[in-house]
Design a protein that fits this description.
The complex is a heterodimer. Chain A is α/β, with parallel strands linked by helices. Chain A has a single domain, classed as TIM Barrel (Alpha-Beta Barrel). Helix content of chain A is 44%, strand content 11%. Chain A starts with a helix and ends in a 7-residue tail after the last helix. The C terminus of chain A is likely disordered. Chain B is an alpha/beta fold. Chain B folds into 2 domains: 78 residues, Orthogonal Bundle (Methyltransferase, Methionine Synthase (B12-binding Domains), Chain A, domain 1), CATH 1.10.1240; 124 residues, Rossmann fold (3-Layer(aba) Sandwich). In chain B, helix 1 packs across helix 3 and helix 6 crosses helix 8. The longest helix of chain B has 21 residues. Classes of the chains: A alpha/beta, B alpha/beta. The interface between A and B is medium-sized, with 32 and 22 residues.
Chain lengths: 339, 222
Amino acid sequence: MTSLERIGAALSGKFADRRAVAPLLALYGSRLAGIPLERYYRDAAAYTEGQQAVVRRFDPDALFGPFVLAYEAAAYGAELKWTETAPPNVRKHLRLSAGALPSIIAPENDADLSYLVESVRLTAEFCRGEKPVAAVLTSPADLPALLLGVDAWLEILLFDPAAASDFLSFSEEHFVALASAYFKAGATFIAVPIMFANPAILTDALIEKLALPALRRAFARASGPIVFHHGAIPLAERIGMFKDLPNVAGFLLDEKDDSTTARNTLGPGPLLIAGPAGPTLRNRSPESVAATVRRFLRERADDPAFMIATGAADIPVDTDPEIIDALLRAARNEEPIDG
Amino acid sequence: MAQSLFDLRSLLYNCVLDADRAGAARLLDQAVREYGFNPVIADALEPTLRRIGERFAKDKISLAQGYVAGKIAEDLLGKFDATNDQTIRPQRGTIVLGNAEDDYHALGRKMVSAFLRVEGWHVEDLGNDVLPELFVDTAERVGARVIGVSAMMLTNALNITKIREELDKRGLRDRIKLAVGGAVFVMRPELVAEVGGDGTATTAMDAPALFDSLDTQAGGGE
């Protein structure tokens, strides 16, 4: 059974030969291939070389495009900060007013967005239809936070609803343009980290009035399946708010989430994905990581529509590979599951 | 009809839950006219913020509601400052606050600043992307016993190490304490020690208690 078939089975609610497992090793590929980040995150061929090294070393069931949401802000002029250990991040946000928003940048007209799309295209080519490739894309509710900063976006959402609507409309168009480019490049699905529609961040009134309608409109225009990424915030207790979003094939939960609560709320349909938080792996023991994986496997023992992944963000480059091995072993060493 | 400050707490609390900054301002303006600033801050705003903080710590309140709580406090303190009457509120000393070098995520810092000011601290807010030397120079100049540094991302949080080194180089380890905070410290509590922090608070509303404790450790109140 190929990885694509394994995840396809989970998506259609059938047990596979074993649980699919897909740690987020987008960044980690640079370490395995020995490529400095300034090259890794500028040269799509170098990125793909890193993902090939990931397959050789770990053989996960899915690969990811670069997790560099900051490039989406950089396309509109945000200043980036580079480090030797993490993907570039926004160094300085923009001062944009709702009345003078820039034109949507077509991915092919921007070096950073082109790099993201080309990395997905080359990685998908390399996977030759045997492994799914997920592209990572900023949600329309979150792009303004990347562009303006969290506090400026929160201020607009809370106190200037007309401007908030303008920013959300702008972000929807950006989302649709980049999602289309990703799917055209061969992405199997897109993973969308979402914070500014989570009740931990916004009030229910703002979610219902502004954030959810924006997600609904943008997701309906996506030309492929979407995985709703928890955005490093627990999701399960309020996941019902998002169950009817169009094109959402699965939900990536937070490590603190109770997957049974999520399943009971969602019903048997969508794929649930869960596992330890990626950024925490570097400071954890292999046993702790494996225990988290086993906890989720126990919780979902009778649930075919489930797979293991890592949550939050990339696994840091200085994580001991044995910790990732422990995660994979725990996910794969389950008793054979009959179908 | 005048309402008691006790009743005002519940009304203010509901304004925060509804993210109703304007409604809170109306209530507070009316109360200040009836009771004056000091009782309103001490007997209505402070207890309300503590209640909000308790709820925030249990993940029962959103960041937006916490932000509105900070804005309500800022609005009232802004009006108080405009009276130029600094004698009617007790001052607890000065805190130096800022975002770590290269960090531009101001939200947490602004919220902490508002809650510290409500509790009577004077806040010397240095803003975003503050160099280590400036933190320590300012603390020495204003006689602060605590420096508070905020960082959202790991790479920026690691820059706090330079503040620790600067404090130690000047022999200030016992006289000036280093409070650290931000999303990355919530996710990775071990980072507090890694960057040389003396303590952290999980939420902005827990910050005043942390600063109280660190101020005492640094000899405050002696």
